[in-house]
Write a structure and sequence with these properties.
The chain is built from two helices and three strands. By secondary structure, it is an alpha+beta fold. The model has no long low-confidence stretch (mean pLDDT about 95).
Length: about 55
Amino acid sequence: MHVHIVSGDGEAKFWLEPEIELAKNYHYSRQQLKEIESLVEGHYNELINAWQQHFGS
């Protein structure tokens, strides 16, 4: 499971399992990546549930 983050500043991909981990980064700064990772952590359960609803378990 993974999540893509896209904005005018860049694009990133984070693995959700087996643990949250940056997979790819295009143009985000370290500070932006820290903020994004914090948001991913804060919404982890929602992201997992949305993934499972969309793709199945």
